[in-house]
């Protein structure tokens, strides 16, 4: 404190909020020109900024609050996979909306090689972001542990195992598989196949577990020749469907663990002269635009993808702000959306 009694450090956003008698978010919206602020609040914030000498630029805010004002969203996939998969785009939409409301910058990071992973690790070690959101995490992914060692807040989209300790937002993947098979069995299908995602991902294993639970509940025998693993791509669905038809040509139902997998399966069924749903009923997961645009329109298990992105961002923002550990592990419900494919 100087002899005059005046403060010598840079004023923070929190100090402006306290002087104006408003919340931190209101100050952020005023600074960034948002129309979602009352005239009275805008005037109060303006007076507080003038009295404290607050400089509303990102660099000054980072120095004042010891934060960068940025969050990294990490997707360990290629650009082609990112833009072909509606799931990722919906996650990004939800995260971006929530971070935008909190005046946080979103840094989208694709990791496609070991070299890129190493470069990102160095970036994190330099403390250039306030927190990390991780999407499409596989069982052996080292990034969550790295982030924890660096002391950075992190939230996963999905989880690596049932014992996941890092905060996460997931959906009821087991319930998704169970409801899909119950629907197919209810339509009289008795030889129901499954096209799984990559089984080093917990979500794919849970959907497979749900498939098996659904068969047992319907009194149908489990037949491993009716299960084929694939990556979450349309081409993966094509390969798996060809494999299944070669093994079990009499199959009459297919549960695909994503809408893109279902789209690939649909193309192969058509090539093989199998009608959907007359010969083979088909159910996917996601309820994406892919499901609505397929011919016939795809019955799919809806997971609230955009809401998952929002929840991830909220949990991360609470951690960054030093908030409590409530709602660290969130599992959102799924819902079967019936259309024409089965």
Q: What is the topology?
A:
Layout: H1 13-20, H2 24-31, H3 39-52, H4 58-65, E1 70-75, H5 79-84, H6 86-101, E2 105-110, H7 114-125, E3 131-134, H8 143-149, E4 154-157, E5 168-171, H9 173-186, E6 192-196, H10 202-217, E7 227-229, H11 234-247, E8 253-256, H12 259-271, E9 281-286, H13 289-293, E10 299-302, H14 305-320, E11 329-332, E12 335-337
Helix pairs in contact: 1-2, 1-3, 6-14, 9-10, 11-12
Domain HTH lacI-type: 11-65
Organism: Streptomyces lichenis
Protein name: LacI family transcriptional regulator
What is the helix fraction of residues, given as a range? Answer: 40-55%
Find the structural class using helix and strand composition: alpha/beta
Strand content: 15-25%
Q: End-to-end span in angstroms?
A: 73 Å
> Using only CA atoms, what is the Rg?
24 Å
- What count of helical segments does DSSP give? 14
Catalogue the unreliable spans: 1-8, 58-65
The CATH class designation of the largest domain is Alpha Beta
Largest sheet: 6 strands, parallel
**Which architecture of the largest domain per CATH?**
3-Layer(aba) Sandwich
Tally of structural domains: 3
What is the H/E order? HHHHEHHEHEHEEHEHEHEHEHEHEE
* CATH topology group of the largest domain: Rossmann fold
**What is the average of the pLDDT values?**
88
Q: Order of strands across the biggest sheet?
A: 2-1-3-4-5-11
């Amino acid at each position: 404190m100087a002899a005059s009694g005046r403060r010598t450090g840079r004023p923070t956003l929190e100090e402006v909020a306290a002087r104006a008698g408003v919340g931190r978010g209101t100050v952020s919206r005023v600074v960034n020109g948002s129309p979602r602020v009352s005239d009275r609040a805008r005037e109060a914030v303006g007076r507080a900024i003038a009295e404290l000498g607050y400089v509303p630029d990102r660099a000054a805010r980072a120095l004042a609050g010891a934060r960068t004002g940025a969050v990294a969203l990490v997707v360990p996939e290629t650009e082609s996979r990112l833009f072909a998969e509606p799931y990722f785009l919906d996650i990004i939409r939800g995260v971006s909306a929530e971070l935008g409301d909190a005046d946080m910058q979103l840094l989208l990071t694709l990791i496609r090689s070991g070299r890129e992973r190493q470069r990102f690790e160095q970036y994190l070690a330099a403390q250039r972001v306030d927190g990390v959101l991780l999407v499409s995490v596989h069982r052996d992914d080292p990034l969550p542990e790295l982030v924890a060692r660096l002391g950075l807040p992190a939230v996963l989209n999905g989880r690596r195992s049932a014992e996941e300790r890092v905060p996460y937002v997931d959906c009821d993947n087991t319930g998704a598989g169970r409801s899909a098979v119950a629907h197919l069995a209810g339509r009289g299908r008795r030889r129901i196949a499954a096209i799984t995602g990559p089984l080093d991902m917990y979500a794919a294993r849970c959907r497979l577990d749900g498939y098996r639970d659904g068969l047992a509940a319907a009194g149908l025998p489990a037949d491993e020749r009716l299960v084929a693993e694939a990556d979450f791509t349309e081409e993966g669905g094509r390969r798996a469907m060809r494999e299944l038809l070669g093994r079990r040509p009499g199959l009459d139902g297919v549960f695909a663990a994503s809408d893109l997998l279902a789209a690939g399966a649909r193309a192969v069924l058509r090539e093989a002269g199998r009608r959907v749903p007359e010969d083979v009923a088909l159910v996917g997961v996601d309820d994406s635009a892919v499901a609505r645009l397929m011919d016939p329109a795809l019955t799919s298990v809806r997971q609230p993808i955009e809401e998952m992105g929002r929840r991830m961002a909220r949990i991360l923002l609470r951690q960054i702000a030093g908030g409590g550990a409530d709602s660290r592990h969130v599992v959102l419900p799924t819902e079967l959306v019936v259309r024409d494919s089965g």
